[in-house]
Design goal:
This protein is mainly α and 407 residues long. It has helices spanning 2-25, 28-48, 54-76, 90-94, 105-112, 119-129, 135-142, 146-163, 176-193, 206-220, 225-239, 264-280, 285-297, 308-319, 325-339, 341-349, 360-372, 376-387, 393-404. The longest helix is centred in the first third of the chain and has 24 residues, at 2-25. It is globular. The model is unreliable at 89-99 (pLDDT under 50).
């Protein structure tokens, strides 16, 4: 059980711990290495006795590891540092005070999104350090090769160290230069939070955190339409969580979800954020994206047909301000319902982005279209390609059920 417990704590608190260590020691590599060493020690120590607050234990041990390494470096350089703290007692390491770990994630997000860092690396670095996504997961999200992403991450961390980038939240006039990367980070982190409809995925805990972070950002910059729109989108999407999975564990597609199961309070919050964003600038990409979610959340019940024509119209508008492979892939789902499956399949097959081969929604969408067109062999291959990318349990079972229908 120790390994499972350690993995759960790392997923839930790893980002907070790295952010807190980075803010204190102003060294990203040291923060990651110290947490890794703390986890290695936990694997042995927790087998004997579990601490009351495992996250606080990891933070304290990682902090001590970092201090010890800095003292060794200082000793070799013949400089002096304060005397080390006395070794903590067992009770100190077991203490259950969650406030031991300051939540510095938003600060670290702004650090990682500094304009001096290449734009393609900003959100990726934040997702790696703050959210704990693996290099493979981030590469899939950005539709690029994993080795390419790994190189970008190394260069970005080196840039922070060499350029002496500060680890403080920048002044308000510096926020706009970092804002798009910050919002891209939150978008992808939340997408991973609900990638597994059953809420059992390794990043499911991000959902509430992204609600909090978007609320904080909206309070910091209440005049930014894209922030308000993203806050709305997260709330609209999170409101539907209870309807995403059937009682037997299978995923429920959005068009088949029972709106009476949706969280009315979150939808109301989403509408308030969206209304504020639309008043500022209704043409911004994230505002248009939020409108898609708002349209779905306006559906009162399953008796009301899905708003496919409206959704397609909004996607057409979105293409004028954000034309990328993922937007076109999502649009194809609505296109299929309005103009037919052949037209949608043509759009999907025309997409020319190498990273789509490792993007599960691409294969799942294509498999569904081929299935509807009764092209069984091609549909079976597409379902197999989607299943090979290790979907969450609810999604896996749904894909397997659709594949089984082919015979």
């Amino acid at each position: 059980m120790t390994g499972a417990a350690l993995d759960a704590v790392f997923r839930a608190a790893g980002g907070r711990i790295v952010a807190a260590l980075a803010a204190r020691f102003r060294d990203l590599d040291l923060a990651e290495e110290a947490l890794a060493e703390a986890c290695a020690r936990a694997a042995t120590a927790w087998a004997r006795e579990m601490p009351r607050d495992p996250a606080a234990w990891l933070y304290r041990v990682a902090e001590r590891v970092a201090l010890d390494r800095l003292r060794r470096v200082a000793t070799r350089a013949a400089t002096t540092l304060p005397e080390p703290d006395p070794e903590p007692t067992a009770e100190e390491l077991m203490m259950a005070d969650d406030r031991l770990i300051p939540d510095e994630r938003l600060r670290l997000i702004f650090v990682c999104c500094h304009p001096a860092i290449h734009p393609e690396a900003r959100a990726a670095l934040t997702l790696r350090l703050v959210c704990g996504l693996t290099t493979e997961e981030i590469a899939r999200a950005f539709l690029i090769a994993e080795p390419t992403l790994a190189q970008r991450l190394v260069r970005a961390k080196r840039k922070i160290a060499l350029a002496g980038i500060g680890f403080d939240v920048p002044s308000r006039d510096a926020w706009p230069d970092r804002l798009d990367a910050v919002l891209s980070t939150v978008e992808i982190a939340y997408a991973h939070a609900h990638a597994d409809g059953a809420g059992s995925g390794r990043h499911a805990d991000y959902a509430k955190e992204m609600l909090d972070i978007t609320a904080t950002l909206a309070a910091m910059l209440p005049g930014e339409a894209e922030i308000l729109a993203l806050a709305a989108t997260v709330r609209f999407a999170e409101a539907r969580r209870a309807a995403r999975v059937r009682t037997d564990g299978l995923m429920v597609p959005l068009s088949e979800q029972d709106p009476t199961l949706w969280d009315a309070a979150l939808i109301a919050d989403g509408r308030r954020y969206f209304a504020a964003a639309a008043r500022i600038d209704p043409r911004r990409p994230r505002v248009v994206m939020a409108l898609i979610h708002a349209e779905w959340c306006a559906r009162p019940s399953l008796a009301e047909p899905p708003p496919w024509r409206n959704i397609l119209t909004i996607y057409d508008a979105l293409l004028s301000v954000r034309d990328d492979a993922i937007t076109r892939l999502n649009r194809a789902v609505a296109l299929a319902e309005v103009h037919g499956y052949e037209a949608a399949l043509e759009e999907v097959d025309a997409l020319d982005t190498p990273g789509l081969a490792q993007f599960l929604p691409y294969h799942a969408t294509r498999a569904g279209l081929l299935n509807r067109l009764r092209l069984s062999d091609a549909a079976r291959a597409a379902y197999d390609a989607a299943l090979a990318l290790a979907p969450g349990d609810a999604e896996r079972r749904w894909l397997e059920a659709r594949r089984a229908e082919l015979g």
